[in-house]
Design a protein that fits this description.
mainly alpha
Length: 139
Amino acid sequence: MVVVLAMMPWTVIAVRALVDGIQTSVAEWRLRHASSKKPAPNRPGDAFPEFLVLWALIPIVFFSFSQSKLPGYILPSIPPLAILTGDYLFRRRKPGLNRWVLLGHAVVCGIMTMFALLLPWFVVHGHSMPPRGLWSQRD
């Protein structure tokens, strides 16, 4: 939950970038470990997406099994997720993002904006809700 909140408002794109990083890592790993006679290309930096995925997932998985965990324990997962998100956005420049990813990002940003605009009301009025028929009342 901490990672989801820490990546706001980029949470939807960061999750998609993490899934894409996992898919890329698995595909590259399979290519390197294929039983073909032809050697797979091995350039420096090929394993960087794998490194970022492992860096992001290991703290989350490890501290999810812990009985006494604090939200700050998961924070080391934020930098690799940010790097994966930036790399994903860079690679998706030409073809563009999927409509569902953009829609999810728009919904998250809209909800955040709604809470930011309603925050002063809740600060002044406490836990009472805004009047329901405020806009429908006519004088």
